[in-house]
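Re-run with default settings, no changes from the original entry. Doing this only to confirm the output is reproducible before filing.
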Amino acid sequence: MLEHHIVKITKELSLQPRQVVAVAVLLEEGGTVPFIARYRKERTGELDEVQITAIRDRLEQLGELDKRRETVLTSLGERNLLTDELKAKIGAAETLATLEDIYLPFRPKKRTKATVAKERGLEPLADILWAQDPATDPESEAGAYVDAEKEVPDAAAALAGARDILAERVSDDADARAKLRSLYLAKGVIKSKVAFGKEADGAKFKDYFDWSEPAAKSPSHRILAIRRGEAEGFLFSRLTPPEEEAVAILVSQFVRGSSPAALQVRLAVEDSYKRLLGFAMEAEVRMFYKKKADEEAIRVFAENLRELMLASPLGRKNTMAIDPGFRTGCKIAVLDRQGKLLFHDVIYPEKSAREQLEAAEFLHSVAKKYQIEAIAIGNGTASRETEAFVKKCKLPGAIQVVVVNESGASIYSASDVAREEFPDLDLTVRGAVSIGRRLMDPLAELVKIDPKSIGVGQYQHDVDQNALRRSLDDTVISCVNSVGVEINTSSKHLLTYVSGLNSRTAAGIVEHRDKNGPFTSRQDLLKVAGLGPKAFEQAAGFLRIRDGAHPLDASSVHPERYPLVDAIAKDLGCSVADLLRDKAARDKIVPKKYVTDDVGLPTLNDILQELAKPGRDPRQQFEVFSFAEGVEKMEQIQPGMKLPGIVTNVTAFGAFVDIGVHQDGLVHISQLSDQFVKAPSDIVKVGQRVQVTVQEVDLARKRIALSMKSKVDLVRVKPGERRPEGNARDVQRHGSGSAPQVDWFTAALNKKN
C-alpha cells in the first residue's frame, strides 16, 4: 500500500487517514463492501457503503496509474531515454493525462509529416527557426537545405518541412497541452448539425439538428443523445473553444517577438493547432465529457435500480399470476407461499361471451382450490382490461389484485436461468411465474434478470459497459445484503449476490440443502464443499435461518458476536430468547459495559436494534395501488385530468409515470414541483406512487405530458381534434361517451354462483 495514495484519497474524500488505511487493509484481506460497512464499523470509523466504494474505486484507479507509470518508465529505460529529470516528472504525475503528456514526445510514432522532414535533414533548420534570433534570415538559411535528391526542391519547401517539425514539437509540449486542455474544459462549445439528407430519417434527433451550448453546462442526456445521433449517422458535432484564444495561448508560449524567424514559428504554431493539437485536445475533451456523462447516467440508473429492487414485497401469499394477452389468451400460473409453481393454464376473457363466462368460472374454481390470497397481473398489453375483468369476477375473499411492472420478464423467460428452473415449460408460462414472484418478493426475482433489461436506465447501451456493469453489480449486492437472504428457501441466483459468495459457493449451498435437508444452524455453512472460513465470515451475517439452532440465526447479528450476546444475557440472568421477547430485559442492558478493543458502541447499538426487531426487513410495507378506473387508453385522457400513477423511470430531465394507459407519461423536471428542482431524483423515486395532472396528449406521437405542480398550464385541444369530455371520475361514471349497456356478464355470473 503506497502512503501517497492514502494521503491523496484522504484529501479528495475528506476522510481521516486511519479510515482510508483501514478500508484498504480490509479490502486487501478479501473483505466485501457490505461486510466492511456492516460489521467493521469500529475499524473504519463508521464509513457507509458509498464511502467505502469510493475508496475502493480510487485505490483501483491509482493502481492503474501506477501500472501505466511503470510501463512508461520501462519503455524509456529500454530505449536509453530515461534521465533523472524525466524520471522525477513521471513520478510526480498525478493524473493519467499528465503522465501521457510527459511521455508523448518520447512515444514511438507512426510516420508523420515531421518525421519525413527529419529524414530530409531539415531538423537543424527547424532548430535555427526555433531560436527566433532577430538576425536570422529564414530564406537565406533555408537555401542551404535545398536538395533535389532529398525532395527539397527550394527554400519554401525547406521552410515548410521545418515548420512541420516545429508544429509537432508544439503539439508534443506538455505545458501547451495542459493549457489548451484547461481552455477546452472551461470554454469549449459543443455544436451539432444534421447530416446532409438525413433530416427525415433522423427526425428523433431533430432537437440537435442545429444545436450549440457550452460543453461544461451540457447535461448528461444531451451529450449522450448527440453522440448516439453521430453513431447512427444522423448528426455530426464538434467541441471547440474560441479559436483566437486557443492560438493566442500557444503564440504567447512559443513565439518571441516579430522577427522573420518568429513569424515562421507563429505559422508553425497556427498549423499545429489546426492540424494536430486542436484535434487531439478535442478528442480528449470529448472523451472527458463522455465519461462524465456516463458517470451521471450510470448513477441515475443505479439509483433507479435500487428503488426498484427494494420495492415493497407483498410477502408469502398464495398467488395467482396472470400474463395478459388478447389473441393468445391470458397465461395463468398459481404459486404457493414459497413461490413454487403449482398449476398453470390459459383463459380467454377477450373472446366470446361464452369463453368470458368460462374464464370467470375458472378463476373462481382456482381461487377456491388453491386458497388464493393475491393476484398479480403483468402491466403489458391488455393489462387494464384483464384487471377490470378480474375485478368484475368478484372472486371470493379479500383477494388483492395488483398490476405488476413486468419489464424484463420476457428476458427472464428466455434466459438460461429460466430454462434451468423450468426446462419443460413454455416461455409464456415462465413469464407468468416471474410476474407472480415479482409481486411476492421483487428483489428475489429481479436478481435473475440483467439489470439493463429492467427498463429503468437511460442510454444504457451508450455508456461504458464495464463501468455500468460494475455499478449495477454493486447496487444489486448492496440491496441483497441490506435485506438479508433466507438460506433455506432462496434460489442459487439470489445467494450468488450475498457477501462472500459466488456462483460456485451458492450452487454448493443449494446442493447441500437438497441433499441434506434445511440448514439448522449458520455453522452448518462450514460443511458446504468449497465454502471456507473467509467466505463464512463474509456471508454468515447476511444469511437468515428461521427457527435456527441459535435464536440469533434469524437476525443480522454476526455469529462472531454470539458469545457477546450470550454473555449479556447471562449477566441479566436470562436467555438470548428472553432478550428477543422481553423489552424490559433489553432496557437493562448498559452498552458501555461491553465495549472492548474489538467491539465498540456502533456494533453494540446494532446488536441492540436487532434484539428489538430480529431480521427486520428494511423495505417499506406493501400497499395496494390502483389506477383510475375507466381510464385505460390514451384516447380516454385529456388535459386537466388528475390521475394516480407509478414512477417507472427517473432521468436527468424528468420522470416517466405509468398512469395505466399502456404509455408512460413524462413529468418534465420543470413540472415536478412548485419549487426549483436541481435533480428529479431529489423529488421522486422509481416505484413511488404519485398524483399527476395531464398537461398535454399527443395521440399521433404517443406522448403524454404530465405535471405534479399545484397549478398546471394546460395545452388545450386543437381545433377539429375530438377528445372525450370530463375528468377521470366522469369517465369512470359514464365511460367514454357510449350508451349504457346491460351488464350481462355480472348477471350471468351471479346466476351461476
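Residues 113-304 form a domain with the Tex N-terminal region-like fold (CATH 1.10.3500.10). The two ends are 76 Å apart (CA to CA).
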